[in-house]
Sequence to fold (138 residues):
Amino acid sequence: MRFALFSLIVLLAGCDAIRSTSDRWFGGAEPQPAPEPVVAEVEPEEPPATATQAGWVGARTTIAGLGDPNTPGRWLETPLVEAEINGRIVVPKTGAQAYVTLVPASGPAGGGSRLSLEAMRALLLPFDELVELDVYSD
Fold:
């Protein structure tokens, strides 16, 4: 019995947790603080402003249906823009709105648009119907 108790004490003395506790109690070495990680601060790059990125004032109207459901994100492919810009779309009948990326599409300015699956879900729209949208550039 004494041998088992002595063996247990010897084994526990080798553990770091026991050693650090006993060092604090009996005045052993002071624990060293962990080194602080160095974090490099990086300034975010702003995209260059061009004339094609400028939006318009007010709303433009388009009719949209479901676009490619395999393309992720909230986007609206529309002939209303010539370059990708951020925008807001509103369903006039319900007042639902979502912020999307406006992606240029080929066709006349009055042509139809295609809306992403995620944007249709955000606006609570049925996937199998065409919907009228007010498009704002932000």
About this structure: The chain has three helices and six strands. The chain has two domains: 1-28, 55-137. Residues 48-53 have pLDDT under 50 and may be disordered. The beta strands are 60-66, 75-78, 85-90, 97-104, 113-115, 131-137.
